[in-house]
Each structure stands twice: as C-alpha cells, then as structure tokens.
Amino acid sequence: MFTPVEAYLGWRYTRAKRRNHFVSFISAIAMLGVALGVAALITILSIMNGFESELRDRILGMAAHIVVEPERGKLSRWKEIARHVDQHPSILASAPYVRREAMLTHYESVHGVVIRGIQPAAESRISVISNKIVDGQLDLIAGKFNIVLGRGLANALHARVGSRVTLIAPEPMRTPAGMVPRLRRFNVVGIFEAGVHEYDTTLALMHLEDAKRMFRFGDQVSGVRLKLADPFEAPQVGAQLSLTLATLGLDSNRVVDWTQTNVNLFRALKTEKIVMFVILALTIAVAAFNLVSTLVMVVAEKNSEIAILQTLGMTKIKIIRVFFIHGGLIGFVGIIAGVILGVTLSSNVHAIVSGVEELLNFKILSPEVYYISEIPSELKLRDVMIAISVSIGLCLIAPLYPALLAIRTSPASALRYD
C-alpha cells in the first residue's frame, strides 16, 4: 500500500528540523498529548471499574443474589420453596427472613429502621454479616431478644454493645384501654459495618423467631434469600425458578434478583462511566487537533519540497499517503507510550496513591468520611482496546485536512521565488 519513498518521507518529516527545531518540538508535543490522553483514559476507566466492583462486592456481601417473596402479604409455604431451590445446582444456600420497618429508641434518640429477622447459621451461608461485626458478636438466640445494629444506626441512637433499645412496631395492639403501640426492649449484642450507607444506617438484625413473635408472623416469613455460585447468573437462574414455582402452584410468589433491586445504582454508575469516557476521549481529540496543527505547519514548511515532488511525478494520492504516514507515526508513538503509561498507572494505583499520601501527609479518602478508604483499580482488556481504537480513529482523521492542503500546492506558485 505504501512504497518505501512515501514511508521514508513520512518518517523524515517527523524529524523535520530547521534552525529553531520548531516542527520537531511541536511533533513531540503532539505525541505527548496523545500519550497523556490515552493514559488518562485507561487509568480513570480502571479506577471506575475498581469502585464499581468494590461497591458491587459490598452490596452482594449483604444482599441476597435472589429473593423469593410473595406478591403481597406473607410467605406461608417457604419450607417447601426452600427444599426445592436447594436442589438447583447453581444455588449454594437458602435462608428464610422476616423484614419489617419499625422504630428504635434509646433514651431521647429515635430512628426509623429496617428489621431483618434471620437464622444466624443459615444467614452466615448467605451473607458476610458475621465477618462485618466490628464490636460484640452475632449472638442472636431465639427468645433472648438480642439485636445487632449497623454502625451508623448505633451512632445515631448513641447506643453501644450492652445498651438496651426499645423497638416500636407499626401495628398497634388492642387492649381494654384501646389501641396502644406494641414495643419490646432488646439487648444490643453487636455492631456491624458493611461499608454500604444504606445498611449501616438503617438495618438492624434479630433472630427469626423473635421477629416472628414481634411482628405476629406465626409460622410465615417475608421470603427466602438465595446465594448463587455465580452472582452474574442471577437473571437466568431467577427465570428458571419462576417456571419451577409455577409448576408447583406457587406462581403467586415472585423471584427478584440483585440486578433488579439495585438497577438504579448500577445504571447510574454505568452512565457516569460513559460520561467520563466521553470527557477523556475529548482530551485525546484535543491532542488530535494539536496533531492537525503540527501537520499544517509541516505543509507550510515543506511547501517547496512538495512542489518539487509534484514536478518529479509524485501523484496526489502518494502525497496524501506521505502525510498519513507522518501523522500515523506521531499517533502510533503517542498511543504506545500512553498504553504503557496507563497500564503501569492502573496496575500500581494503590502504591502510587500511598506514596503521594505519605509524601503530603494527607489521606485522600479518609476512612472517617468515606466507606471506601483506598482507591481501587481494575484493569480490563476491553477498556484498553476501546482507548486504543478511539485514539487510532482520531489520529487517522487528523492528517486528512493537512494532506488535502498539501495536494493543493501549485508547483509554479511554490517555486516562483526559489
């Protein structure tokens, strides 16, 4: 496609020099601009992947991969459902739960909470709650009316391990004196920190039997929580379970997976990643415009040489190829340097950030303020290939105008005074 003459001229123009070396300098600046743009794009996308994975892992550590719950009311045939779902090869464990909203009070502090009644042994197979206890322990025993609070909730109530809090149920109790609220004193035996604001500030755990008694569930539950071997198979497994429940006459229950319950959060993260990609791609576009200006200046400097080449019989197509080679070399070097720099930064974000924090004696993500105190990074080949593709596209478009400008050179006009 390219002859040795065109390749030689393109390479020679890349190293074009005059007394001020100006063209070589702006060529280096164009390479540097492309390299920094590609490196920034790869690094930022990797960091955003890291934050998304960290948040997803924290949510999935506390939330069930799939929940089987009734359309309305309470789930009565939950033991039958648990027995059938445990036979599915993709399901590792199941656990019943009771969920209700209520109020907790401690002295003058009052806070709305989400109560989750659990079986501690079964829950440990579903979630990582037992590993998230930061004070006390998951000592939930039926009939003891113990409770475990999220750290943010405990702070809001000014409660700690050993405190006694009062739970006020929303359903009132009928007495000869009229309707009175139902309340019960609970012992705080543990405090957990899941690293997710929603759980840490609103969730309280108690034993399943205590929750049934408090909220008058009898032998019913709110639903059954399931854990899968692969969380990303949740939509497919959920569809299979829906068909299975329908054949058992349990089609009044619905199957909800984690991608549905957290759809707004992950959609927002995806949108933010797309916006950030567009912004950083514009940085590469700016570098491409710098490449255009570089090539235009080369055309102006080499005006006479282009005219001589035309008089020697070089066609316009070959002249266009010369400038595409010239621009392509600048873009190629910039892209390769940017990929190397971006991959290096993405693979060593933690070490680099730690070094900067130690040098400046400043914590970028303070653990007292942010749930994620370290900047995570997850380098994906797909993002690297997208960054390379976008950069190549922009760098191939950049030489088009200077090349068209070069072929418009008139040999008679260019050589008139030479």
Protein described:
- This protein is α+β, with helices and mostly antiparallel strands and about 425 residues long.
- It folds into 2 domains: about 200 residues, no CATH class; about 200 residues, no CATH class.
- It is about 55% helix and about 20% strand.
- It contains 16 helices and 10 strands.
- The chain has a 6-stranded mixed barrel, surrounded by 4 helices.
- Strand 2 and strand 3 form a beta hairpin.
Structural class: alpha+beta
- The domain tally reads 2
- How is the largest sheet built, in terms of strand order? 2-3-8-5-7-6
Q: What amount of the residues lies in strands?
A: 15-25%
Residue share in helices?
40-55%
**Low-confidence region ranges:** none
How far apart are the first and last residues' alpha carbons, in Å?
A: 33 Å
- Rounded to an integer in angstroms, the radius of gyration calculated over CA atoms is 33 Å
Total DSSP helices? 16
Q: Which sequence of SSEs, written as H and E, runs from N to C?
A: HHEHEEHEEHEEHEHEHEHHHHHHHH
The tally of beta strands, per DSSP, is: 10
Q: What is the makeup of the main sheet? A: 6 strands, mixed, barrel
Average pLDDT, all residues: 82
Shape summary? elongated
